[in-house]
Amino acid sequence: MRSAQSVYDLRKANRNRVYRFLYESQGDQTVQDVSRSLSLSLPTVNQNLNELMESGLIDNSKIASSSGGRRPRLLSVIPSARCAVGVEISPHHMYLVVTDLRVNEMGFRVVSRPFEATADYAASLAGEIQSLLAGLGVVQDMVLGVGITLPGIINAANTVLEYAPTLISSPLELSFLREAIPYAVKFCNDANAGGFAEWWDQPEQPSMAYLSIGRGIGGAILVNGTPYSGARQKSAEFGHMCIHPGGRTCSCGRVGCLEAYCSTAVLSNHLGISLADFFHGLESGDGEKSSLWKRYLEDLSIGIVNIHTMLDCDIVLGGPLSPFLGKRVEQLKNHIDLLDPISHTSQHVRLCRYHEKSNGIGAALKYIDDFVSNI
Ligand SMILES: [Zn+2]
User: Fold this and answer.
1) Which of 5, 12, 98, 187 is found 20 to 30 A from 176 (Cα to Cα)?
2) DSSP string for residues in 15-71
3) Does domain 204-352 have CATH number 1.10.10.10?
4) What is the pTM (predicted TM-score) of this model?
């Protein structure tokens, strides 16, 4: 005889299978489709569908067009039934994004506010989240949680920001942020979140390296969709691989790092212009910017080829540089084709999908993925 617990577990597993099937389906489905595809009896499917509809997660209001006989009802998930918030904290800004269960963007806000480890800062972030959600008409019960990315290394217990030279000079307890926000909160490294967003929903890429290129250069390695964080949460610090021994001094104190050559500051702040201005000048044929860009691409290619030589997987380029790369990715790939010592190709390199929103979306996705997996 089955125990009450195992009956409960089986029912929960079936409910999850039904929900996931509809979530992962491209089009609407009928009860018969669900029953046939999952090899579940019609009464079992109907029971689970009733529970999911009572929870407001499934819609059955559409009727199939006639193909003779009785027209069946069509089933689909309701993406707006829940949402999640992703927040990217950078030295000078907060970037907030709200997505529904299908990762459709519901709202986005950029707040200019320098980071400080104070209760005032935490209250201001909480206020921005609440005001964004209120403007979208989202009620508290719909919010799965708030994922917050930080540009640094977070401990395994998800409680302390251990190292983030652009934000802090010594380890920082993150409870002041958690306590100010009236939702579940998870913290994650910014590039890990961005990598997760770019990996998620792409079943053809089991493993991937994500290279985030901004003022800082970070990255993520995803092995079958799971971030490889390393023994001490320090993996994929691609910005600090040495590409020119004895070269330029890096923010980490060493010399010759990829970040010292391919930080976007090399194209903007060091010239006293914005990144947009740099690319505008490049587009207009400015000779000085063209030669700087050529050297920049050569250096970036070295970093990308090194990553590929070690990991032999797809490499996705993201971060603040990515919106400007566009058609210039082909120039970069031409350099990589010449440099790659083993595969002699750049087919594995591509641009990200979410650009400047990758980190926030990846942080929100931690909640969405968990909800869809465990409902
Ligand atoms: Zn470095």
Assistant:
1) 98
2) HHHHHHHHHH-SS-B-HHHHHHHHT--HHHHHHHHHHHHHTT-EEEEEEPPPSSSSP
3) no
4) 0.85
